[in-house]
Amino acid sequence: MTLESWIPLVTIGGTRCTVRLALALATVALAGCHRSPSGSGIPAGVRYVPRAEWGARPPVLPMRAHVPVRITIHHTGVAQDPRRSVESKLIGLQTFSQRDDSLASGRKKPAWADVPYHYYVAVDGAVAEGREWRFVGDSNTPYDPTGHLLIVVEGNFERDTLSSAQRKTLDILVPSQARRFRIPEAALGAHRDYAQTSCPGRALYAELPRLRGLIPSVATQGNQR
Known about the structure:
Radius of gyration: 21 Å
Order of helices and strands: EEHEHEHEEEEEHEHH
Distance between the termini: 58 Å
Helix content: 10-25%
Structural class: alpha/beta
CATH architecture of the largest domain: 3-Layer(aba) Sandwich
Strand order of the largest sheet: 3-8-7-9-4-10
Mean pLDDT: 84
CATH superfamily of the largest domain: Peptidoglycan recognition protein-like
CATH topology of the largest domain: Lysozyme-like
Number of strands: 10
Number of helices: 6
Low-confidence stretches: 1-38
Strand content: 15-25%
CATH class of the largest domain: Alpha Beta
Number of domains: 2
Shape: globular
Protein backbone atom coordinates (compact mmCIF):
# COMPACT_ATOMS: atom_id res chain seq x y z
CA MET A 1 0.00 0.00 0.00
CA THR A 2 1.44 3.36 -1.02
CA LEU A 3 1.39 6.56 1.01
CA GLU A 4 -0.84 8.19 -1.62
CA SER A 5 -3.59 5.66 -0.90
CA TRP A 6 -3.92 7.14 2.60
CA ILE A 7 -4.69 10.63 1.29
CA PRO A 8 -8.47 11.24 1.55
CA LEU A 9 -10.51 11.97 -1.57
CA VAL A 10 -12.83 14.91 -2.20
CA THR A 11 -15.19 15.70 -5.05
CA ILE A 12 -14.75 18.82 -7.21
CA GLY A 13 -17.21 19.36 -10.04
CA GLY A 14 -18.20 15.70 -9.96
CA THR A 15 -14.58 14.48 -10.17
CA ARG A 16 -12.91 12.60 -7.33
CA CYS A 17 -9.45 13.86 -6.47
CA THR A 18 -7.04 13.95 -3.55
CA VAL A 19 -7.11 16.76 -1.01
CA ARG A 20 -3.59 17.62 -2.14
CA LEU A 21 -4.78 18.12 -5.72
CA ALA A 22 -7.82 20.07 -4.54
CA LEU A 23 -5.59 22.43 -2.57
CA ALA A 24 -3.29 22.87 -5.57
CA LEU A 25 -6.24 23.74 -7.80
CA ALA A 26 -7.53 26.24 -5.25
CA THR A 27 -4.09 27.86 -5.04
CA VAL A 28 -3.91 28.27 -8.82
CA ALA A 29 -7.39 29.78 -8.91
CA LEU A 30 -6.54 32.28 -6.18
CA ALA A 31 -3.23 33.22 -7.81
CA GLY A 32 -5.07 34.27 -10.96
CA CYS A 33 -7.71 36.26 -9.11
CA HIS A 34 -7.13 40.03 -8.90
CA ARG A 35 -10.33 41.11 -7.23
CA SER A 36 -10.07 44.41 -5.41
CA PRO A 37 -10.52 44.20 -1.64
CA SER A 38 -13.93 45.17 -0.33
CA GLY A 39 -14.02 48.86 0.50
CA SER A 40 -10.94 49.76 -1.56
CA GLY A 41 -12.98 51.77 -4.06
CA ILE A 42 -11.06 50.14 -6.92
CA PRO A 43 -13.25 48.22 -9.39
CA ALA A 44 -12.82 44.55 -10.11
CA GLY A 45 -10.74 43.95 -13.21
CA VAL A 46 -7.86 46.11 -11.98
CA ARG A 47 -5.01 44.51 -10.05
CA TYR A 48 -4.94 46.44 -6.78
CA VAL A 49 -1.97 46.49 -4.39
CA PRO A 50 -2.94 47.98 -1.01
CA ARG A 51 -0.42 49.51 1.36
CA ALA A 52 -0.18 46.40 3.52
CA GLU A 53 0.68 44.28 0.49
CA TRP A 54 3.62 46.39 -0.67
CA GLY A 55 4.93 46.86 2.86
CA ALA A 56 4.17 50.54 3.53
CA ARG A 57 5.61 52.14 6.63
CA PRO A 58 3.44 54.48 8.72
CA PRO A 59 3.45 58.23 7.92
CA VAL A 60 6.33 60.06 9.61
CA LEU A 61 4.60 63.44 9.99
CA PRO A 62 1.07 64.68 10.73
CA MET A 63 -1.26 64.92 7.73
CA ARG A 64 -4.28 67.11 6.97
CA ALA A 65 -7.67 65.54 6.29
CA HIS A 66 -9.67 66.46 3.18
CA VAL A 67 -12.41 65.27 0.86
CA PRO A 68 -11.48 64.92 -2.85
CA VAL A 69 -13.38 67.30 -5.14
CA ARG A 70 -11.14 66.95 -8.20
CA ILE A 71 -8.84 64.38 -9.80
CA THR A 72 -5.33 65.46 -10.74
CA ILE A 73 -2.99 63.39 -12.92
CA HIS A 74 0.80 63.33 -12.47
CA HIS A 75 3.60 61.28 -13.97
CA THR A 76 6.61 59.89 -12.12
CA GLY A 77 8.97 61.68 -14.51
CA VAL A 78 11.23 58.63 -14.84
CA ALA A 79 11.29 55.97 -17.54
CA GLN A 80 8.91 53.03 -17.29
CA ASP A 81 10.53 49.90 -15.88
CA PRO A 82 8.57 46.70 -16.58
CA ARG A 83 11.27 44.53 -14.96
CA ARG A 84 10.76 45.94 -11.46
CA SER A 85 7.77 45.00 -9.31
CA VAL A 86 5.21 47.62 -8.31
CA GLU A 87 5.86 46.69 -4.67
CA SER A 88 9.54 47.57 -5.07
CA LYS A 89 8.65 50.84 -6.81
CA LEU A 90 6.34 51.91 -3.98
CA ILE A 91 8.91 51.06 -1.31
CA GLY A 92 11.46 53.19 -3.19
CA LEU A 93 8.99 56.05 -3.62
CA GLN A 94 8.05 56.04 0.05
CA THR A 95 11.71 55.98 1.12
CA PHE A 96 12.45 58.97 -1.12
CA SER A 97 9.31 60.78 0.05
CA GLN A 98 9.94 60.45 3.77
CA ARG A 99 13.40 61.99 3.79
CA ASP A 100 15.01 65.28 2.81
CA ASP A 101 16.34 64.73 -0.69
CA SER A 102 17.18 66.33 -4.02
CA LEU A 103 14.87 66.45 -7.04
CA ALA A 104 16.00 65.75 -10.60
CA SER A 105 16.23 69.53 -11.12
CA GLY A 106 18.75 69.75 -8.28
CA ARG A 107 16.30 71.55 -5.98
CA LYS A 108 15.97 70.25 -2.44
CA LYS A 109 12.72 68.79 -1.13
CA PRO A 110 11.73 68.44 2.51
CA ALA A 111 10.64 65.16 4.01
CA TRP A 112 6.96 64.44 3.40
CA ALA A 113 4.69 62.45 5.67
CA ASP A 114 4.20 59.67 3.16
CA VAL A 115 3.97 58.86 -0.55
CA PRO A 116 2.67 62.13 -2.07
CA TYR A 117 0.07 60.48 -4.37
CA HIS A 118 -3.05 58.53 -3.55
CA TYR A 119 -2.80 55.98 -6.40
CA TYR A 120 0.14 54.77 -8.51
CA VAL A 121 -0.55 53.28 -11.95
CA ALA A 122 2.34 50.99 -12.87
CA VAL A 123 3.48 50.17 -16.41
CA ASP A 124 1.77 46.76 -16.16
CA GLY A 125 -1.55 48.41 -15.29
CA ALA A 126 -1.52 47.54 -11.58
CA VAL A 127 -2.81 50.18 -9.18
CA ALA A 128 -0.96 50.58 -5.89
CA GLU A 129 -2.38 52.46 -2.92
CA GLY A 130 -0.21 55.39 -1.91
CA ARG A 131 -1.26 57.88 0.73
CA GLU A 132 -4.71 57.19 2.11
CA TRP A 133 -7.19 59.29 0.10
CA ARG A 134 -8.58 60.91 3.25
CA PHE A 135 -5.37 62.93 3.62
CA VAL A 136 -4.01 65.78 1.48
CA GLY A 137 -1.15 64.78 -0.82
CA ASP A 138 2.13 66.61 -1.37
CA SER A 139 3.81 68.35 -4.29
CA ASN A 140 7.28 69.62 -5.13
CA THR A 141 5.67 72.68 -6.76
CA PRO A 142 3.85 75.57 -5.06
CA TYR A 143 0.21 74.56 -5.41
CA ASP A 144 -2.17 73.46 -2.68
CA PRO A 145 -3.32 69.87 -3.36
CA THR A 146 -6.15 70.05 -0.80
CA GLY A 147 -9.21 68.45 -2.38
CA HIS A 148 -7.14 66.80 -5.14
CA LEU A 149 -7.23 63.02 -5.56
CA LEU A 150 -3.71 62.50 -6.91
CA ILE A 151 -3.12 59.74 -9.46
CA VAL A 152 0.46 59.26 -10.64
CA VAL A 153 1.26 57.23 -13.75
CA GLU A 154 4.62 55.51 -14.13
CA GLY A 155 6.70 57.04 -16.92
CA ASN A 156 8.12 60.23 -18.33
CA PHE A 157 5.44 61.19 -20.82
CA GLU A 158 7.55 63.85 -22.45
CA ARG A 159 9.24 60.78 -24.00
CA ASP A 160 7.23 57.67 -23.07
CA THR A 161 3.76 56.69 -24.22
CA LEU A 162 1.13 54.97 -22.13
CA SER A 163 1.32 51.20 -22.17
CA SER A 164 -1.87 49.49 -23.30
CA ALA A 165 -2.29 48.18 -19.74
CA GLN A 166 -1.97 51.69 -18.27
CA ARG A 167 -4.54 53.05 -20.72
CA LYS A 168 -6.96 50.27 -19.86
CA THR A 169 -6.51 50.89 -16.14
CA LEU A 170 -6.98 54.66 -16.44
CA ASP A 171 -10.16 54.08 -18.46
CA ILE A 172 -11.53 52.16 -15.46
CA LEU A 173 -9.89 54.01 -12.57
CA VAL A 174 -10.64 57.63 -13.49
CA PRO A 175 -14.42 57.33 -14.07
CA SER A 176 -14.78 55.03 -11.05
CA GLN A 177 -13.13 57.58 -8.74
CA ALA A 178 -15.15 60.40 -10.28
CA ARG A 179 -18.31 58.41 -9.55
CA ARG A 180 -17.11 57.53 -6.06
CA PHE A 181 -16.54 61.15 -5.04
CA ARG A 182 -19.13 62.78 -7.35
CA ILE A 183 -16.42 64.66 -9.26
CA PRO A 184 -17.54 66.26 -12.55
CA GLU A 185 -15.57 65.88 -15.76
CA ALA A 186 -14.48 69.53 -15.63
CA ALA A 187 -12.65 68.76 -12.37
CA LEU A 188 -10.31 66.25 -14.03
CA GLY A 189 -7.01 68.02 -14.56
CA ALA A 190 -3.26 67.60 -14.48
CA HIS A 191 -0.39 68.92 -12.40
CA ARG A 192 0.50 71.48 -15.09
CA ASP A 193 -2.97 73.02 -14.77
CA TYR A 194 -2.12 74.19 -11.25
CA ALA A 195 1.64 74.81 -11.27
CA GLN A 196 4.47 75.78 -13.58
CA THR A 197 5.58 72.30 -14.67
CA SER A 198 5.52 70.01 -17.69
CA CYS A 199 4.01 67.20 -15.56
CA PRO A 200 2.37 64.88 -16.58
CA GLY A 201 4.12 65.18 -19.95
CA ARG A 202 2.67 65.88 -23.38
CA ALA A 203 1.57 62.34 -24.20
CA LEU A 204 -0.36 61.82 -20.97
CA TYR A 205 -1.81 65.32 -20.95
CA ALA A 206 -3.23 64.65 -24.41
CA GLU A 207 -5.29 61.78 -22.92
CA LEU A 208 -7.27 64.05 -20.61
CA PRO A 209 -10.05 65.06 -23.05
CA ARG A 210 -10.72 61.40 -23.78
CA LEU A 211 -10.75 60.54 -20.08
CA ARG A 212 -13.15 63.40 -19.33
CA GLY A 213 -15.50 61.87 -21.86
CA LEU A 214 -15.61 58.68 -19.78
CA ILE A 215 -16.80 60.46 -16.64
CA PRO A 216 -20.58 60.25 -16.15
CA SER A 217 -22.51 63.42 -15.41
CA VAL A 218 -22.71 64.27 -11.73
CA ALA A 219 -26.50 63.96 -11.90
CA THR A 220 -26.18 60.22 -12.61
CA GLN A 221 -23.42 59.53 -10.09
CA GLY A 222 -23.93 57.91 -6.73
CA ASN A 223 -21.63 58.29 -3.76
CA GLN A 224 -19.80 54.97 -3.45
CA ARG A 225 -17.22 55.68 -0.76
